[in-house]
Amino acid sequence: MTSPIQTILVPTDFSQAARQALVYAVSLAEALQAKLYVVHVVEPIAYPAEWLESAISLQSIEQAIVQNAHKALNQLLQETVQGRVLVEGHILFGYPPDAILTFAREHAVDLICLAPHGHSLIERLLLGSTTEKIVRNATCSVLVYRVKEPATASSAGQEELANGN
Questions:
Q1: For residue 129, what pLDDT is reported?
Q2: How many Cα atoms within 13 Å fall on the side-chain side of residue 113?
């Protein structure tokens, strides 16, 4: 029997939370024998019109950002996937939710697996989060991976108390 999940998309901003979501998605893809797409979105640099004289230097900055993104993505894939599943890495351009959703539609992605991002309440109210926009607008299933926080001494002690130790 074939799995209904043949392709999984994992957006990354190279944060620790996104890395954890990727590690989880690799295990899931391995279990389902699914193909994995890992994408990073580079947003265009916005600048006032009066800066047009220095557009050449801004282009070189954008090129450096893209080159660094490619290097970081390749390194991330080497460290996390390690040949366990079929994977493609892509650098996308634009507004992250739109670029991710467009990629998912164009590649007939079955599942998007991503981590929630730690925006402040004010940022969420004013801008919304990438994760929220993807959950609301995706045409496929979305798995939001709950990030595992490292246990602190106080939380470990509270857990022992709750367990009666």
A1: 84
A2: 27
Residue-range domain boundaries for the chain: 7-162
How far does the chain reach from its first CA to its final CA, in angstroms?
47
Burial profile 21-52: b = 16 or more Cβ within 10 angstroms, e = fewer: bbebbbebbeebebbbbbbbbbeeeeeeeeee
pLDDT given for residue 79 in this prediction: 96
Structural contact between residues 80 and 22, judged by C-beta atoms closer than 8 angstroms: yes
- List Cα–Cα distances, 135 to 81, 82, 119, 128, 132, in angstroms: 25, 29, 16, 12, 5
> Distance between CA 72 and CA 41 in Å, rounded?
12
Residue 97: name the closest of 135, 144, 151, 52 by CA.
135
Averaged pLDDT in 10-residue chunks for the chain of 165 residues: 87 92 96 97 76 64 91 96 95 95 98 78 62 93 84 50 49
pTM of the shown model: 0.81
78: which DSSP letter?
Answer: H
CATH code linked to domain 7-162: 3.40.50.620
Q: What is the C-alpha separation between 134 and 56, in angstroms, rounded?
A: 34
Judge whether 103 and 39 are in contact, CB under 8 Å.
Answer: yes
